[in-house]
Amino acid sequence: MNKKYILSGLFFILSVFTTLFAQTKVSGIVVDKSNQPVPFANIVFKGSNMGVMSNEDGRFYIESPSTYTTLLVTSVGFSDTEITLDKAVNYNFKVLLKDMEELKEVVIYSGKTSKKNNPALDILRKIWERKRKNGLYQFDYYQMEKYEKVEFDMNTIDSAFMKNKIFKGMEFVFKHIDTSRVTGKTYLPIFINESLMEVYGNNKTNKVKEQLKANKNSGFSDNQQILSFIKDLYSNYDIYNNHLTFFDKSFTSPLSKTGIDVYSYVLRDSAFIDKKWCYNILFYPRRKNELTFKGDFWVNDTTFAIKKINMAVTKSANINWVKDIYIEQEFEVENDSVFLLTRDHMMSDFALNKKDESKGVYGKRTTLYQNHKFNVEKPAAFYKEEVNYIDNEVYNRSEKYWDDNRFENLNKDEKGIYKMLDTLQTVKKFKQLYNLVSILGSGYVQFGHFDYGPIFSTFGYNEVEGIRIRTGGRTYFGPNDTWRLQGYTAYGFDDHKFKYGLSGKWMVDKKNRIIISGGNRRDVEQIGASLTTTNDVLGRSFASSSLVSTGNNGKLTNINLSNLSVEIEPVKNLMFQMGFSYRTLESASDTFKLDYYTDASQTTTRSDVKQSEVNLQVELAPNRKMIGYGVERSTVDSPFSRFYINYSHGFKGLFDSDFKYDKLQLYYRQPIIIGPLGRTNLTLELGKTFGTIPLGLMSVIPGNQSYSSIENTFNNLNFYEFVADQYATLQWEHNFGGRVFSRIPFMRKLNWREIIGAKAVYGTISDASRAINASGLVYAAPEDVYWEYSAGIGNIFKVFRIDFTWRGNYLNTPDTQKFSVKGSFGFYF
């Protein structure tokens, strides 16, 4: 069909919907006399306070439920322009702005505004002085009611999309199409979640507690990946902070004290708003590709508190999968001087690319606040976070309850989402599509209450097993299961042996998350793949299951591991675990031995190790966010610090155990977001074994003989190149997030991200442990501090990262890797 007719048909459909849902809609582009786009122009309906701003390409979209006949377009350096609207719906307007001929006493700023003699900056400095004296910060204690609505919508719906065969049998969903007031794109609601909460805050201790009173959603309420994604949208932000974090990226706030260096500011207007005289300040980025916003705000002339702010992430910002982020906040005046946040709206447009015509998904969150109370003190114990609390009653509130308690009524579209999705989930084809997405996201295929997988572990290869196939599964009744069984079996085509693993977990106390677990595994493993180890019976080293590796990876071990443990989480994100394990170790290859001497004369050797061990673990992970309340939970992918300590005691003689020892291990990881300079990760590991141990129980400094970058390994070390019974490692990596490349013109559009790092390890081996070594492996410990450094490029094609690593010392050891190139795939924002 001719594209012209398709486009005409699409406009006809859009016109029908705009007649139903809004009275006035306009889209177009603002240009100057040279036909060049005018970015950041202000577009309003004349006689209203409803306005938008053109983007970097001069394009805009504005809509209103009321009828307006005149559009007013203004921009610094140009004459004000009025456009007459002949009809309610107007698309593809071209607005020509003329240069201002008479400046008179008006000061005009264009391009990069001056940092001197700029009245906007004088106002900004007063905002900095008062920002901790405004709003909720004026009181020691506060409480308020909060209503939050999160919605996901498919956008850029056109006639060709609706006619796609994939939607056969589901055409009824397109009856719910509407048009975004922010972007002007058509969209189809696919998910909605509503929450009512009571919020309590203590400014003395910076503690905040939210009590959920009601929750309602439609769509995919049991999908862990979607719930995790939603929880990321819930990240809190304060516009007064210097930096605002969205999707693990740190954006410079327009109210930041460093904003002068990255934004241009223009004092554009002043007016009464709710009987308060306010200034209107426009802001936009000085440079492209940085994590910044464009927009404007109204600020009071006496308290210098923000009354209203609108801001959008610039299209050139170096962030993946997100085309737009748009934020609106409104503040109301209480007691003549206190400005309180009453409405917070955030919309994100997720898409594969940033082209205007690309299809994507809107994520919209609207939060409303009301009924504020101040200086009602609560005891410190009141703010203690519940570890594993779930009140099923809050998820089953009646329709009357919601009608009586919503802060604002749902519109026609939002009401229709609940009914549409209930119907949609009865359609067989939709179930098939949903199941496919769930499989790719979780790695499991669901059959009733049994999940087959993980499918991504089906194939592997190493020199002992050759090609390896694996099959397994787990019980699954829902995300909040209080018990779970998991198992697998595997077969190696070279060693002709079957392997297996079986484990079970049972949560006996939900409040404190008391979990009993146990299991058994017989498999082939690369036991030198990490320093800080666990006794997870279903864990497996990537080093022994990768498809491709460099050099020889035959230094593998047959392991038979059984364990029983109990864990408790009495305080949120603080976990204690005590466990007992029994394992046997023996070499899986004729070319590799774990032999040790059993007598002082060094005449008798053994090749296997039998060991009983008890261990106590403590883990602290402040600010970690979790999804679900079951025996297994998912972690939200947001930066949090992690502290882990493990004490182990090895018994001699218990179940024929061979060695007595004590082992202490510590792991600490700290992510640090350094504003616009990117993110640093610091990792420290310490360990010491007290007692005499053989190679099988030694701490092996983890090498990496794969072609992939593996966290907490040394890229230029081979397996077993260094061993130790006491060690200390420090790893540092910094991701600049593209800040350097964005300053290089020919690299700016690539959106690559520069990464640098360094790793170092120190270790020793006791004389007693050296004396019993009969493995044939010459022990080498990094007593002179082995180190390596790296430089990498991330975000290549948005999914690939490449790292170049140089060895700093120990350059003359056999089979030395002085330089390596490794890559990895992943989805990055």
TrEMBL record:
Q: Does the keyword Signal apply?
A: yes
- UniProt-recorded name of the protein: Membrane protein
- Cross-referenced Gene3D superfamilies: Carboxypeptidase-like, regulatory domain (2.60.40.1120)
Q: Which UniProt keywords apply?
A: Signal
For this protein's source organism, the top of the classification is: Bacteria, Pseudomonadati, Bacteroidota, Flavobacteriia, Flavobacteriales
Where is the signal peptide, in residue numbers?
1-22
